[in-house]
TrEMBL record:
<feature type="compositionally biased region" description="Basic and acidic residues">
    <location>
        <begin position="37"/>
        <end position="46"/>
    </location>
</feature>
<feature type="region of interest" description="Disordered">
    <location>
        <begin position="33"/>
        <end position="59"/>
    </location>
</feature>
<protein>
    <recommendedName>
        <fullName>Secreted protein</fullName>
    </recommendedName>
</protein>
Amino acid sequence: MRIWKLLGVAGLAGVAAGSVVLARNERQRRAYTPDGVRARLHERAASAEQQPAPAPPRS
């Protein structure tokens, strides 16, 4: 019976840790300003245009 209690506590600790990670990522995502997001998207689009297109799969 004791092993089940330990597994339950470990499961709760895992859920709590996952929630902390998700909350931290959400705060970081919301910290961007609209201009900052737009600038990053433009940078990513420019770098994607510079890279060659992937070769089609061989059959």
